[in-house]
Amino acid sequence: QLGNTAKKLNMKIYLVGGIVRDIILGRKNLDIDILVEGDAIKLAYEFAKENGFVFHKFEEFMTAQIKTKDNIKLDFATARKEIYEYPGAYPKVEKATLREDLFRRDFTINTLAIDITEENFGILLDYFYGYQDIRNKKIRVLHELSFIEDPIRIFRALRFAGRFGFKLGSHTEKLLKVAIQQNFIKVAPEGRINLELNLTFNEENVIEILFLMDEYKLLNHLIKYFVLNDFRKKVLEKIRDNILYFELIFNKKADKSIIYLLGLLYHLPLEIATEFLEKYYFEKAFKSFEEFYYLKDKINENLKNSEIYEYIKGITLETKIFLISYLPENLSKRILDILNKEKEKFITGKDLISLGLKPSPKFSKIQTEIFKKYLDNEIKDKKQALEYIKQK
Ligand code: ATP
């Protein structure tokens, strides 16, 4: 049907980018990107009008988006050239052919297109050997200056490599190393680096990607005094496991970026960590950093469970998950045990009412007091707890 609308308007349309790559890889991808040789806004508008879909346009970028009735999103872009006025800048755009549009892309694996006009429907167009690179598991740039033109591609190269288990092509690897060594990321806008890091922290293979970023010294260039040793690598791995554990056991979804930022920065003085967070707009992590730096030397073996509980009960979910990943195993286990017990809701308001008490703000004080005794094994079970309250 879309092919029909395009034909009426005498335009050519192609499925492009990540979705084509992922079709070949057999991976799920719900981002449908349609490239138009012609006017993408006009085509999307006509198609939306014919079908009663929701339509939005972005004139400045020559793009449009429509949402179908069953909530499928289609992104339309006018085939265009991009001109970077200086390395790292947001590019200026101009109309172009399909091939020119594909040439401005980051890696060959992202340059494949599938023709979806009526007469050629389903034909794969591969101008830059993208298919071969997908099969050979290779990340390759399209030209020598790619990383310098847009240093964000350094991050993207390692993100795709880590995500798919691909290797950098040997020439691409050399270009990437030079770009990092020459500190080209310095000219990338901090906002774009923030976006890239957020995407990385939310990737399934986040650890593989962070290790690659370390291996290629990208993290060193990004974070002052950064060193990733074996212990810190283990902490990062434990973060991944604990995020999953909290989702499954406590049904709680944490902000992964904050926890991985703690994992990367915790060995640095708070001032240096804060400087990084400010520079790359991660203010959302401030609270957890303050909590962790305050707590890290306070929680130790010699504390009673109730004392540990007192320290952790009000802190953010992200700090909790990080603490559990960072502290020695026996302490982490104790904290997890405390949190599991807290989840059980040992003594409820109903229990107190059943003892003849009138609901009042005092309830939560009593509940905390009893819960602490339970944590310290001074009270063994609910029966004993109710007995204790009655006596008091
Ligand atoms: P993902 O699965 O992460 O969404 P994607 O390939 O769809 O992967 P997007 O970030 O959505 O990635 O970008 C869409 C397309 O735009 C990419 O396939 C790529 O060709 C191109 N692109 C994105 N960022 C850049 C960049 N910095 N330089 C060149 N091309 C880029």
TrEMBL record:
Family: Belongs to the tRNA nucleotidyltransferase/poly(A) polymerase family.
Name this polypeptide is given: tRNA nucleotidyltransferase (CCA-adding enzyme)
Transmembrane segments: none
Sequence ranges assigned to domain Poly A polymerase head in this UniProt record: 13-140
Residues of the full protein shown: 466 to 857 of 859
